[in-house]
Amino acid sequence: MNGNHTLGREESRSGRFLKIHDYCKLHIILHYVRVLMGDHFRTIPIGRVGMDEPGKTLLREMENTGFIMDYVKEDSDSSTLFSFCYYYPDGTGGNLTTDNSACSKVDESLVLEAEEEIKHMGKKGIVLAVPEVPLEARKFLLQLGKKYGAFCAASFTREEIIGNQCMQLFPYADIIALNREEAFALCGKNSSGVKMDELPENCLRILRQFNPDMIISVTCGNDGSIFSDGKKTSFFPACKVKAENTAGAGDAYFAGLLSGIALGLKFSHAQQLATLVAGLSVTSKDTINKGINRDSLREFLPKAGINISNPIQTLLNN
Questions:
Q1: Long-range contacts for 58-63 (Cβ within 8 Å, ≥24 apart)?
Q2: CA 298 to CA 121: how far, in whole Å?
Q3: How many whole angstroms separate alpha carbon 63 and alpha carbon 57?
Q4: What is the pLDDT of residues 216-268, one digit of tens each?
Q5: Are strands 47-50 and 72-75 parallel, antiparallel or unpaired?
Q6: Dist CA 312 CA 207 (whole Å)
Q7: Which residue of 122, 128, 129, 268 is 20 to 30 Å from 218, comparing CA positions?
Q8: What distance lies between CA 140 and its chain's CA centroid?
Q9: 3-state secondary structure (DSSP) of residue 172
Q10: Entry pTM
């Protein structure tokens, strides 16, 4: 967009198309999990795309990445999720996303088709519920995960948090990932005067009314990230890199965090892996940096400007 002033309600603004590819949250997170965990790790998205060219393109990309595609269905009556992203010259921006896409038709019946997969994974599995599908379907997915002993993870949009719509999912999540803006939204009226390092405590005070064992992760852009399991709070700085595009960095971080947890790392070490993934992700203009894998993360280590512990270095060398 031309001009840094905020787009007005009735304003017509000029701009230009950029050669940047954006993806939905689930696709971003699962892509990084898949490439970091390798072929032995079954990565199974549940969703819907339209029977259109964008849908066909996404199906090909997901198949090429190695996802198990049994539960990604084509819908003949709806288009594939579409988001119009806009950037101001200073790098800030936002997006407008369709709420009547094929994604909106993901329901309990589709999730139920994957029940045997979730049952088979049992306590070794991770179940992830993220936008942009209806909350009821995400709730049912988390409930199935809890039923069979999986580690359950979730994230939400700021809109969902402000409207308190997400509270029905809190009892079924073991970890919730938020960015700073979402964390302050969760604190609501109690957020006035809250400092960044106080965010986890304030968020957990709310979340643990629903689940006393809740874990929380908060990404804070250039200020790094905060992780808390209620007993210990871990702060870790962000990588010192020149960002081409920060969109999707929080999802990349969440992917690194979940990968670290799946690999049995301590939470503080999983946080470091997440930071590396997020740091390298922003060096790409696209919201999925398809050059990321363990080899590229190892090469990135000396340039990241952060101190990484030995377990992470060992992991990336294997």
A1: 58/27, 62/27
A2: 30
A3: 10
A4: 999 998 889 999 988 888 899 999 998 888 889 999 999 999 999 999 999 99
A5: parallel
A6: 30
A7: 122
A8: 19
A9: helix
A10: 0.92
